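Handout, section B. The chain below has 263 residues.
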Amino acid sequence: MRARYFMLVIAMAILLFIVPVAQAITYGEPDGSGHPNVGVLVVEYQGKKVGVCSGTLISPTVFLTAGHCTAPLPSFGIEQVWISFEPGLDTKTSKLYPGTPFTHPSYGHDFARENDLGVVIFEDDIPGIEPATLPAAGLLDEIGPRGLRGQQFTAVGYGMSEPSLGGGPPVFSGFGIRQVSTPTFNALNQNWLRLSQNNATGDSGTCTGDSGGPNFLGAGDGETDIIVAITSTGDSMCQATNVTYRLDTPSAREFLSQFVKLP
């Protein structure tokens, strides 16, 4: 328990440096083997390996995550990271695949979140895992806000659960377990897909540690393997909105085309 607490404190310290509002699964459920291509980004900090963000395998050698997860790593002297695809992360026993992080060159450091994309490149193929699919250019624009009305999505990540309230400050817990949730379309603009995760309306969503994790088009029987956006930010209590960065835009596609073949 003490070791887990220490890991959480260090992970939160890194995340607070990375982003003022990071993201995790809220009101969701354990994913088990449901999304084996979704993994957790692990770094070594002060001699300890800790999980910090989520992401998805998009080719046998490329793992997609958020730019705010990879951009600060050089400041910590971190040049190599690891990815685990196990449903539950245990840095002492989980299989960890080493890789090298890269960040979108235009990612800003003012937390405006433009070009919030990063990747981890593996030297060898990741065996036995089918990569997820990226969207075609302008897919969400083609569907349009009217067509997206009522559309559900599937968010996956290793982040924390919704806060426990009462008798003091809110308490977040649960980092390191891959979970799945179902948010609903809220708004669309040039770079962002905003999703409702308001549990009062039957939605669920993301919280601290889910940053970089996928948002698949569809949910339940209608879920696809197309990642239309990755989790970027949201409200501080993880109870209202999952703000996700679109992958079908020219800027996102230009960056990703350096590493994978695009549809």
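Note. The helical segments are 2-18, 67-70, 139-148, 250-256. Compare this with the example in section A.
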